[in-house]
Amino acid sequence: MDKVIVEHLYLNYSDGTESLKDINLRIPANAITVLFGPAGGGKSSLLRVFNRLNDLADVKDLAGKALLVGADGSTLDLLDPDLDVIALRRRVGMVFARPIVLPLTIRGNLTYGLELAGERDKARLDETVERSLKQAALWDEVKDRLGDPAVALSGGQQQRLCLARSLALEPELILLDEPTSGLDPITTNMVEASLQELKENYTIVLIPHSIEQAARTGDFAGFFLQGELVEWAQGKDLFTNPKVKRTEDYITGRFG
Amino acid sequence: MARQTLDRKIQHLRDEILVLDSMVEEAVLRAVQALKDHDVATAEQIYSGDARVNAKRFELENEVIITIATQQPIMASDLRLLASILEVAGELERMGDYAKGIARICLLIGVERHVKPLIDIPRMAELAVSMLHRAVEAFVAADPAAARLIPPEDDQIDRLYNDIYHELVQVMLKDPTAQTIDQANFFMWAAHNLERLADRVTNICERAIYIATAELKELSVSDDESMHRKYSG
Which of residues 178-217 of A touch B (CB under 8 A)? Predict the structure, then answer.
């Protein structure tokens, strides 16, 4: 099943920094899709279309189609100007390159969103805290100090806390923009391993911080260059036998 | 990734494949010549020299592993090439074993008079080595068109093998003494080694096509062909 459907999507910023040119792709549900390529290629812009972060940017033109498909097959028009963005972001979580923890306790970071949504049942909140921390491979490290301030955690732990915070809301789609760029290799492994488990229940779109990570994690992969989706394939095919020379040149380090 | 470093390493590995190939080609031709000439001294050199072929193969294998570990990410055509170098190095090493096997036959026969003049076996060796040479060139150049031309020549090898078989059976029927049967068997063994060597050339051609096109396909199966011909006459 497709989780996101993008057709003939065009995007231009007012300052002309990055753009998307006629993007067509379908992001499969319950898989990890990686969007990779050199900076300025459009991958982050596309990611931000999926949860409407572009609403905050100076977008000059945005045209085409981008749909979020629900479990029941219903579709949500991601370009609809009247879209309830708050409701959308409950369905579409996002984790950034630099962890942004809230100035609350570890637990508070995880319950904040649910409490905002009206959840008051302590047992249910506790259960969510444990589940999301386990899913983000952080539970064992923090279970005895959930009341500590989140800022006291290490960078790697904060990053996983952000992932857990996103998971607490049980989004359908999780967007990750270079989520391990500041992490050491061991923590990176832990995050990647938890993504592999999470895809059972979620759809994940990842902008990897390296080609290696793209190859390790991507069930599906899209190579972006100067606003163009150059190639789209299953990861196992794209990284062993790319069909487009520009992809081959990029992944073998001939440019970029 | 420093592309230049990887390019340099890959070029070096290609050169090393050519070196290993030339060692094997020389060993095969010299072994067959030694067999023909009763040249026990040369056969001994080839027999013990196979250790150098094996060492070269391990050296190459080690270099590929180090390249993969240190020059990552190794992807797409680079990955196919490095994986194929491991394969081709292994094939060449086994061909070296065939040369060693022929040298051993030369040592076993020693100065005994040959039960028949050796004509087809040297011919087989020349043809097989010529196929090998061009296959390795196609591999190093990643030239699938050149690689596809070579395997059909294996039919000639099979025909020669078949002829040798029949000739040797006749020799044994005519003079079924222990010495003749022994020697005829040794020659059959030598011919068989060359037949196997030519089969392995096809594997190298398959790799040449694979690195260029990512297509992994068996080019031809001729292993049993000579056996079929044997029974049909």
Answer: 210-212, 215
Domain count, chain A: 1
pLDDT digit string (tens) for B60-102?
999 999 999 998 889 999 999 999 999 999 999 999 999 999 9
Output the pLDDT for position A155: 87
Q: Does B214 touch chain A (CB under 8 A)?
A: yes
Residue B1 makes CB contacts below 8 A (sequence gap 6+) with A253, B71, B72, B73
Rounded to a whole number, what is the distance in Å from the CA of B73 to chain A's nearest CA?
6
Residue A31's nearest CA partner among A56, A55, A4 is A4
Instruction: For an interface test with A, give the residue of B75, B79, B217 to mutate (most A CBs within 10 A).
Output: B75
Indicate which CATH number applies to the domain containing A224: 3.40.50.300
* Residue type, position B45, single letter: Q
pTM to 2 decimals?
0.85
Q: Has residue A105 been placed in a domain?
A: no
Q: Which residue of B has its CA nearest to A249?
A: B76
In order of their start, the domains of chain B are 3-232 (1.20.58.220)
Residue A44 sits in which domain range?
2-100+169-251
Of A210, A212, A252, the CB nearest to B76: A252
| Residue B233 scores a pLDDT above 50 | no
* Interface with chain B: mutation pick from A212, A250, A251, highest number of B CBs within 10 Å: A251
DSSP letter (8 states) at residue B222: -
pLDDT score of B232: 42
